Amino acid sequence: MTKLSGRIALVTGAAGVLGQAICKKLITEGAKVAVADIDAAKGGAFAQSLGTAAMFVPLDVTSEDSWRAAVGTVSQALGAPDILVNNAGYLKPANIEQATLADWRKTMQINGDGTFLGCKLGVEVMKARPKTLSSGVIINLSSAMGLRGRAPHPAYTASKAAIRLLTQSVAKHCGAEGYNIRVVAVLPGAIDSDMLRLNIPAGGTKDEFYAHTSTLNLVGRIGRPEDVANAITFLASDDASFMSGTDFPVDGGSTV
Ligand SMILES: NC(=O)c1ccc[n+]([C@@H]2O[C@H](COP(=O)([O-])OP(=O)(O)OC[C@H]3O[C@@H](n4cnc5c(N)ncnc54)[C@H](O)[C@@H]3O)[C@@H](O)[C@H]2O)c1
Question: Class of the 8-190+224-250 domain?
Answer without folding.
Answer: alpha beta
